[in-house]
Amino acid sequence: MTKQTWTAAVSALLFVALAAVVSLTPVPFVSWSPGTTVNLFEPVDGQARVEVEGIPTYPTTGELRLTTVSVTRADSQLTLPEALLSYWLSAREVLPRDAVYPAGASVDEIRAREVQMMDNSQSSAVAAALRAAGQQVREYPMVMGVSNGSPADGKLKPGDFILQINGKEVSTTDDVKAAVNKVAVGEAILFKILRDRQELTQTIITAASNANPAQPVVGINLTIGYSYEPRVTFRISPDIGGPSAGLIFALAIYDMVTSGDLIADRSVAGTGTITGDGKVGAIGGIQEKIAGAEAAGATIFLVPAENCADVQGVSTAVRLVRVATLTDAIASLQELKDPAKAGSVRGCV
Question: Where are the alpha helices (DSSP H) in 134-183?
Fold first, then answer.
């Protein structure tokens, strides 16, 4: 073997080794692509995916599809070739990892966050749907989390509604914070709570805040919760998390508890966060969700108004309908049933 041949062979081997290293080296990005859809009106294991008990319900027809994005898992890494492939393929996106998963968060923390957001979206969806259907919904300050070893540990639980503090009614999270701040460190506070539809009282001795020794704390995180007569059960795969199914959950419940057939044999998909008073918010991965819905046979896709700019130029056979509230979505779906009114339904493009 000549010197030139030997040099060429070594160079080729080094190139192959370098290419192999580069191809296996993880990069700080994640890939988004069209995910699966879930028809909320289709039973799972012989049970309704969304079940409402305690008030009259009515039959539904058609398909109402929750949409998802297939994303690189929190416990997986994207390699450079995979990132480049995702970048060039249609209906896919590549995003910085920190834009999707909080920097420094563990896989368990990320998963817990996704589950919490899903739980919150379901609670808000029920409240919005029942209100739209004329059912009574009450709001209360609600315990969202209890710090381990805190004064409230073992006495308050996530999901507890706080009705009174020291005999005075509270209606907002600020009311609760103000009531706790009124007492001294080491003083007892009497909480009246609603847990599993039963009223209870708990006495909690305040402790000093780690940040300020003069600041009394009980060790709870608060949000607004909703109380209503019906019992609503969701049977959704635990692999699906986050807040973006709120609008579709609300529409499913509304269609079930009202006598009019809202979906009416159509295949409707959509996405969007929702608040307890029915406001629809933006989500990520809208183009991927539209592609997934079209592949599943949907003919109508409900797009949050704030996402309309993200679908400009998207080529799809699915009718894209702009919605800013649950009321918008209900009105649009009703009008689309009537050919004479369908042309007035506002779209994104």
Answer: 173-181
The answer to whether 251 and 262 are in contact (CB under 8 A) is: yes
**pLDDT tens, position by position, 75-98:** 556 555 555 555 445 566 655 555
Sign of the dihedral through C-alpha 266, 270, 274, 277: negative
Using alpha carbons, select from 247, 298, 289 the residue that is nearest to residue 32.
289
Local structure of 329: helix, strand or coil: helix
Which residue type occupies 219? G
**Do residues 319 and 300 touch, judged by C-beta distance below 8 A?**
yes
Nearest 10 degrees: Cα torsion 282, 287, 289, 295? 160
Among 125, 157, 153, smallest CA distance to 143 is for: 157
- Identify the bridge partners of residue 96 per DSSP, sorted by sequence position: 29
What pLDDT digit, counting tens, does each position of 288-309 carry? Answer: 899 999 999 999 999 999 999 9
- The Cα-based distances of 213 to 183, 187, 205, 306 in angstroms read 13, 14, 15, 44
Among 74, 139, 55, 65, smallest CA distance to 296 is for 65
Mean pLDDT score across all residues of the chain: 85
